[in-house]
Amino acid sequence: MKFLSLCSLALLLFLGCKETPEKEAAENVASVETEIQENPPVASSLIPTYNFDELEETYFKVESDSTYVINFWATWCKPCVKELPAFEQLRENHAANKVKVVLVSLDFPEHVEKAVIPFIEKKGLESEVVLLDDPDANTWIPKVNPKWSGAIPATIILNKEKSKFYEQSFTYEELEKEVISL
Amino acid sequence: MKLKKLLTLEVAAVLVSFIAFSAFINSSHNEEVSNPVSVDGYSIGDEAAGINLLNVDDTMVSYEDYPDALGFIVIFTCNTCPYAVASEDRIIALDAEFKPKGFPVIAINPNDPAVQPADTFAKMKQKAADKGFTFPYLYDESKSVYAQYGAKKTPHVYLLHKENNKNIVKYIGAIDDNVRNASGVKERFLSNAIYELLDGKEVTVKETKAIGCSIKV
After folding, report:
1. Which CATH class is domain A44-181?
2. What pTM was estimated for this model as a whole?
3. Beta pairing partners, A68
4. What is the ipTM of this complex?
5. Every domain of chain A and the residues it spans
6. Mutation for testing the B interface, residue in A55, A138, A148, A175 having most B CBs under 10 Å
7. Fold of B53-214
8. Residues 6 or more apart whose Cβ sits within 8 Å of residue B49
């Protein structure tokens, strides 16, 4: 039993690192998911987890020529899930233009194994996904943008010169337009 | 001739303002937050409009039903948002603590069940029964109340204080500093604000932010 769960974990880790998870492999993940649930979850080491200061340090201080598109979302947030394909498409179409997409999950840390990881695999998300684990939202929300009510989805588009904040849902066309016009 | 010219001018002016207005309407959705010049909803110190909404017990509820209340804890919340669910026990506890002190909880569900099927009136009744809500859980069917107040998400709290028979907004935001986990709370923003009002003091922390589910309309 223990060995099996270790294997499942190894498989998950392996998949998490893969560029393009194959369909067959994704199905395997679905079947090992129950296995994971039966066992005590191993901290959310499967996706990078940050508090706000760490997140800010890692992504909000752009020094390269890249444009970062940072989207705050959660697996339980319907409008967030609906707009994710637009972000995936943006990453794919504009990678050559140094556009980087970071999907900052606000899922509860205890739901990473049973909700976030399976979701990433099922949707085949290839954008970078990180978890923001910082309960004191009243302190960090205004640091993202003073106008943010705290509702998600919310997105920041930034490069080393400027940044723009959006509390709204995007279609691909709207998103691309904002990135190009930043 | 002069009249004709005047009329033409007038028609032109009306046309221009109509075009400008429709452009404003069209762009306001996208521009609203990326370019937040206009502030919608209530600010601290505003008088809150009355309500008359259907409760889960099939009666209509308004502020006038509470002539002895000193104010109201108005909470926009819903059935399924994980942040709302994580707040349920705290909302019940708030009602238990503050109703006897004159500040009853009034919960309002602003979500459109056509968009969020888990928020039908029948499911609201179920939620209130399952959790043993001790406060009204109202259905904002016309979607007018949340917009008027400026609620953006669930849960979203508006603390009202009765002054000269007007309900004045004294605090807007979160219940406390840890929506996810009640045991991790360090600061009870809303409770602190109510105690300050009860002591006849000004509320020190008037607005706070918390993550929530966008209102589904």
Report:
1. alpha beta
2. 0.76
3. A100, A158
4. 0.73
5. 1-40, 44-181
6. A138
7. Glutaredoxin (3.40.30)
8. B145, B148
